[in-house]
Amino acid sequence: NSLPGKEEHISVFLPCSPNPTTGFFFYVPKSKIIEVELTAEDAATLIMSAGVVQPGSDPQKKLAALAGMANAARVATAASLKPEPAKVE
Fold first, then answer.
1. Which residue, 5, 13, 3, is CA-closest to 33?
2. pLDDT at position 1, please?
3. Total Cβ atoms within 10 A of residue 84
4. What is the pLDDT of residues 34-52, one digit of tens each?
5. What does the pLDDT read at residue 48?
6. What are phi and psi of 24, to 5 degrees?
7. CA 36 → CA 28, 33, 39, 87, distances in Å?
8. So what's the pLDDT on residue 24?
9. b/e burial code for range 16-45 (CB count within 10 A of at least 16 → b)
10. What are the residues whose beta carbons fall under 8 Å from the beta carbon of 51, sequence distance 6 or more?
């Protein structure tokens, strides 16, 4: 038994988040595999946090960026809700 074609395939388990005991199993052509340098601990953290905690990221920088985006959205919303002065002709 083999998969169609001549290319070698690799078995890949794609876990569901946040419960990595469930997931999907694929056979992927070896040429499509991209190896990443993650420790088992970092990979588990990434999966269990549903991608919120990313290896090598600085949580303080991430919070500061989110706060900046929230502030910009607040300012833009306030500006769009500000009534325009009535025109006197």
1. 13
2. 59
3. 5
4. 888 888 888 888 888 877 7
5. 84
6. -125, 150
7. 16, 10, 9, 61
8. 94
9. eeeeeeeeeeeeeeeeeeeeeeeeeeeeee
10. 17
Which sequence spans correspond to the domains of the chain? 9-81
Low-confidence residues in the chain, pLDDT < 50: none
Distances from the Cα of 71 to the Cα of 20, 50, 53, 58, 66, angstroms: 35, 25, 22, 20, 9
Q: Kindly report the three-state secondary structure assignment for every residue of the chain.
A: CCCCCCCCEEEEEEECCCCCCCEEEEEEEHHHCCCCCCCHHHHHHHHHCCCCCCCCCCHHHHHHHHHHHHHHHHHHHHHHHCCCCCCCC
Angle among Cα 22, 25, 28 to the nearest 5 degrees reads 150
Token pair 């601990």 is found at 41
